[in-house]
Amino acid sequence: MKIGKVLKVTGFVIVVIIVALVVAFYLFGSKAVRLGIEVGGTKALKVPVAVEAVDLSLLAGRAGVKNLVVDNPSGYQNEKMLELGEARVDLAMGTVLSDTIHIDEILMNKMSVVLEQRGLTNNIQEVLDGMAKEETEPETEPGEKKQPESAGKNLVINKLEISEVAVKVKLLPVPGKKDTITMKLAPITMTDLGKEGKVDFAVLAGKILVAIAEGIVQQGVGILPDDIIGPMGDTLNVLGASSEVIIREAGKVLDGSLESTDKLIDESKKLGDGLKKGLGGLLDSKKDDKEKE
Questions:
Q1: Which of 67, 77, 189, 234 could connect to 52 by a Cys-Cys bridge, CB 3.0–4.6 Å?
Q2: pLDDT per residue over 44-61, tens digit each?
Q3: Pairing between strand 62-71 and 80-91?
Q4: Phi, psi angle pair for 91, to nearest 5°
C-alpha cells in the first residue's frame, strides 16, 4: 500500500510539473515573442509598434500574431500607418526561449497600409528617412565601427510571404483631382532571412517596410505623384532595396517594352546613377535639387 501511494504521489507530482512547464512555456514564450516584435519594430521604425496577442501552439509548432499595428509619425491625420489582423508563424517551438528562433514560414495576409502626404513628404517617407539616417550614420570614433544595439533574439526565417496588401494613398487636396487613391500590391516573398547576416526583430521590421515601400514605388509609377515616388525610390536605394527591380517595373509602365526596359537597366548601370538615371529624372531627389541651387 505504501509503495502504491508513493507511486501515485510521484505520478501526480510529475503531471503537475509537466503542466507547470507547459503553462510557463506559453506565458513566457508568448510574452517573449510579443515583446520582441514590439520592441524591435519600434526600435527600427522609430514609431510605436503594438501587438494585441501572440498565441503559441506547442503541438502544432505554430504561433499566431494577432492585430499588429504600426503608428504614424506625429502630425498626420491618420493615427495608423499599417495594420495587420493576423499572421501565421510556423516555427521550431523548442527554439522560442533560446537565443535564436528558427522559423520555417511566416504568412502575413490582408495588410492595410496608409500612405499620407503632408507638405513635401509623407508618413512612409519619414520612417524610411529615419532608417536611412541610421544606416549611414558615421562612425563614433576614427577606426571604431558603431556596434548596433541588440533588438532581442536572432531569427532564421526560411520564407516570409506577404499577400493582399491594400494601400490607401491620401494626397494633398488639389481642385479637380482625386485626393484618395487605392492600390493593391503584388505578393511579396523573402527567403533565407538570417542565414547570411544577423536578423533580429528590428531588422525584420525594417525589411518588411522596405519591401512594402518598394512595392508602392514599383506599382505607383504613372499613378502616384513624382514627389512621392522620387524621394521614396532614392531612399530605398540608400537602404539597399532592389533598384533594378524598380527600374524594370517603371520601364514597363513608361513604354511597355521589355527590350527597352533591359536597355534602360544597362544604361543606368553604365551611368552609375541607379534609379535617377534609369527613369530619366523621374526619381530625382530633393537633395540633388538643392545641390544644383
A1: 67
A2: 999 999 999 988 876 678
A3: antiparallel
A4: -145, 165
